[in-house]
Specification:
Order of helices and strands: HHHHHHHHEEHHHHHHHHHHH
Radius of gyration: 21 Å
Number of strands: 2
Strand order of the largest sheet: 1-2
Oligomer: single chain
Largest sheet: 2 strands, antiparallel
Number of domains: 1
Shape: globular
Strand content: under 5%
């Protein structure tokens, strides 16, 4: 049995090969997020051990995003024009090595460089991974397939945060916060080798308007003239700012407000992400089903989810600051679900509205815009606000978090603007309209 690519009429890969690709690449995405989130879980211990300020702790997250923004486009071109599986394998080896070196760091400068190294390895993985899995299945199930792939975000986040918190608290072999960094480096290397045994689909040319072949540069220019893509890219940037701020700082917020250790704070964050696992798949299923009746359903779904995310994020902190911790935790769970649910419909737009040969490049542009505009600065902005709003030795994370929900509202607006142009841009891609 095969899945037929609706755009070319040719079967991309066999059913079993497509499923193996989806499984392997999704597992690798889980490790990707584990290696990304281990820093959030251990941040209070790192801060105490190395005597860092909240601003410096924020920079350890921001440097990762800045490097990703800088390198994602060349890495995406490598995926699209060379080999998906070889590119993803190389990336996994690089970020795993950098994760190990983070654990070996003895000062802010070394950790800063190592976290930048993690960004070098992970820069092209999401674009290449999404292009790989979406290109192996038919278009009609694209949002659902991308939703499965995006399970790597919440699953990797929960495993990274919970396991890192427990391992660091256990002080294995006297290594303290360094132990989880060493531990997490291994599975990335193993899966990086395994991905070489997946079946890549043929590298296709870039075709626009039904028959016109384009160079890579012409493909870039075409994307820049597609408003629905540009609004989607910046919309993802806004929502990634929200996710970056919450993911980087919420465990520390729990530890401070409740006077608990990193292990308990990590479990609290992990509990939120357990429920968030349903987000990507649910968002993809809703968008795919709605698309049967409305062509621009995917960007509209992302807009509605983003609006709700901002509303519930405000509610969570207002309730939490009122001392109703149990109720606020339930609202934080809803925020976690929404924070991941928008990804499948939004990322699907980046694949729907570009020529087949530009799938990785389109996601690369998305990541470049995402981190180049807003997302990269989330950790350091919240950290700086915390220091600025607080007093010496008493930063105010709760106050800093109040700046985050408006960015979700901005994301909702941008996705809505994408929906307004979506159908026209789709007609142009298919050559129905000049």
């Amino acid at each position: 049995m095969t899945f037929t690519d609706n755009r070319t009429g040719e079967p991309p890969v066999a059913h079993s090969a497509a499923l193996f690709t989806l499984t392997t690449v999704t597992l690798l995405y889980v490790i990707n997020y584990m290696d990304r989130m281990v820093l959030s879980a251990t941040l209070p211990l790192i801060k105490a051990d190395l005597g860092l300020s909240d601003t410096q702790c924020g920079w350890l997250g921001t440097i990762y995003f800045l490097v990703v923004a800088l390198l994602t486009l060349p890495a995406s071109i490598l995926c699209d024009r060379w080999s998906r599986k070889k590119s993803l394998s190389l990336m996994a080896v690089l970020w795993s090595a950098a994760t190990f070196l983070t654990g070996a760091g003895s000062g802010f400068g070394q950790l800063f460089a190592a976290r930048g190294g993690v960004g070098v390895g992970e820069a092209g993985f999401a674009p290449g991974g999404i292009a790989y899995v979406s290109g192996s299945f038919r278009e009609s199930v694209r949002a659902k397939v991308i939703g499965v792939f995006n399970l790597g975000q919440p699953l990797g986040s929960i495993l990274g945060i919970v396991i890192a918190g427990v391992v660091a608290r256990a002080d294995l072999f006297g290594m303290g916060w360094r132990a989880p960094f060493f531990l997490f480096a291994a599975p990335g290397l193993i899966l990086g080798i395994l991905v070489l045994f997946t079946r890549d689909y043929p590298t296709a040319g870039i075709v626009y308007g039904g028959a016109r072949r384009l160079t890579v540069w012409q493909g870039f220019l075409t994307v820049l003239k597609t408003p629905s893509l540009l609004f989607t890219y910046v919309g993802v940037g806004a929502m990634s700012f929200v996710g970056g701020a919450v993911g980087h700082w919420l465990p520390t917020y729990f530890a401070r407000t409740r006077s608990i250790d990193v292990a308990r704070a990590s479990f609290m964050m992990g509990g939120i992400i357990v429920f968030a696992v349903v987000g990507p798949v649910a968002g993809g299923i809703i968008a795919d089903r709605w698309k049967r009746r409305r062509g621009n359903a995917r960007p509209l779904t992302a807009a509605l989810i983003s609006l709700l995310c901002g509303i519930f994020l405000y509610l969570s902190f207002f309730i939490d600051r009122g001392g109703m911790w149990s109720l606020s935790y339930g609202v934080f769970i809803v925020v976690g679900i929404l924070m991941f649910a928008y990804t499948a419909p939004a990322y699907s737009v980046s694949q729907d509205l570009v020529p087949e040969g530009m799938r990785s490049i389109s996601m690369g542009l998305l990541v470049l815009v995402t981190y180049g505009t807003m997302a990269a600065y989330a950790p350091v902005v919240v950290g700086w606000l915390s220091d600025y709003l607080g007093e010496p030795g008493r930063p105010d994370l709760a106050g800093a978090f109040m700046a985050v929900p408006p960015v979700a509202f901005l994301g909702a607006l941008l996705f809505y603007l994408s929906a307004l142009f979506h159908d026209r841009d789709m007609r142009r891609l298919k050559g129905v309209e000049a």
